[in-house]
Amino acid sequence: MTAESPSQKGGTVGKAMEVLDCVARFGQPVRFSQILEVSHFPKPTLYRLVRTLADLGMLDHDADKDTYMPGRRLLKLAHVAWAQFSLASIARPHIDRLGQQVSETIHLAQLDQGQVLYVDKRNGRDPVEMYSQAGKVGPTYCTGVGKAMLAFLTPEEQERVIALQSFHRFTPHTLVTPEALRARLETIRAQGYALDEEEHETGIICIAMPVLNGSGRVLGSVSITDTVLRTTWAALKEKLPLLRETVERIGHDAQDWHYPGI
Amino acid sequence: MTAESPSQKGGTVGKAMEVLDCVARFGQPVRFSQILEVSHFPKPTLYRLVRTLADLGMLDHDADKDTYMPGRRLLKLAHVAWAQFSLASIARPHIDRLGQQVSETIHLAQLDQGQVLYVDKRNGRDPVEMYSQAGKVGPTYCTGVGKAMLAFLTPEEQERVIALQSFHRFTPHTLVTPEALRARLETIRAQGYALDEEEHETGIICIAMPVLNGSGRVLGSVSITDTVLRTTWAALKEKLPLLRETVERIGHDAQDWHYPGI
DNA sequence: ATTTTAGTTTCATTATTTGAGACTAAATGA
DNA sequence: TCATTTAGTCTCAAATAATGAAACTAAAAT
Fold this sequence. Notes:
IclR family transcriptional regulator (chains A, B); alpha+beta; globular; transcription regulation (chains A, B); DNA-binding transcription factor activity (chains A, B); six-stranded antiparallel β-sheet; DNA-binding; Arc Repressor Mutant, subunit A; homodimer; WH-like_DNA-bd_sf (chains A, B)
């Protein structure tokens, strides 16, 4: 009747997905009572939702400790999602190639609801952390990949995304106002690439460039990351031509693919 | 009333997950009518489910081509699932280590509903195909990782899993009867490791060993894979001590972790 | 032995899902 | 051009499933 609001639209399925998010947000196995605390559902309702999700394999239930965590079925579904995820699959060979040319860490990201969604990663030097990035989300206003995309959106899109940012100060270098960010975006747009000057994590710097299709539409972005201990800005910027070549090739291959929303 | 059967239990949420599976099974963006063909739901019901899932981000909708595919939200959820996925996270450092010691491809797998679920992969030689495995499922009866696990289950569990196998002949070497498989499993149990002698894919061979906890319970398995063009059985079997060391270390670290079901 | 806490079940009420059929728009064909 | 098929969307009364206050159980904690 009256305009409801909580957070999510949708009926029963939407509620179930909310529960899934709740559990995922913990980042560790949780008990039913813990989910109850953070969710706004009445106890029996939540109980049934959790059980249903567990029965369906969307949550895994550890019977011993009586805890829940995101289920294996998600892994299988995400495997398919990733494999057909247009930009990731189109970009793969080019990201591979760049990975062989440079020894630094490479990220491929897209915008998703104002946030950066990492969809691929290569780890030149260390073979660690393989799966750790794809599917991860991060802030847009203080990462190289985020700013690179933001800078090349249309003014309207740009404002819409800026309005979604939280402007949390991660480091002393984080840009924490829309004004500061807008000014920086102008520079980025002018020079064609973005830098992350330890804005998200102290000691971590990167160069990033947007992936644009023929019409100049932002599809995603690619970054090369390293630490201040291992590299210098001069050395990192030497990779710009390789990075440019990579994003151009991806943009070319993704010509007629259009990005689903911002 | 009468015993229903179709496939899935569950109410509305279960149906929605069924639709998700349907879409995933295609392995490519699909139109509504294609989903309609393979699903057993009436048109308007399916329509609403698909729309709901798309609204929730579980499916991505390409408005131009009017196609659906598994959504980005799944990627985010699976990212968390994988990160806390006990065996994968416990095993990670050990798999990393093995990856540095050998140049072949390494897989970490678990059993999930009678199938092999790959949860991690390292690709020694080529940096390609990074994401392509975790979340992937495969047959148990004709892969190294599958047979290694199967051989060390209790007899009851073993029979339960064997009953779930389809025994499709992938290559001339595939074992296609329960009897042949049982005989092979006995050998595997005796010698402590499993081989894949081109049973799943011609030209691909591997050695695999189960990850067991202190009580001898199967938690998963690890394999080292190569092609017949690049290696010989003698060369591959030389890696057995490294493999044994790896699975023992994982088993040790996973001591009190108990595997969720078979 | 008593109280508290965490998980589970019940069941009448309520809200959502259901699906035959109707409708629209666009593509196909004669 | 106009009929015809096809793909997608909408409607609404009927059928069904979800809801949640309250009660219950089991196991800790006091």
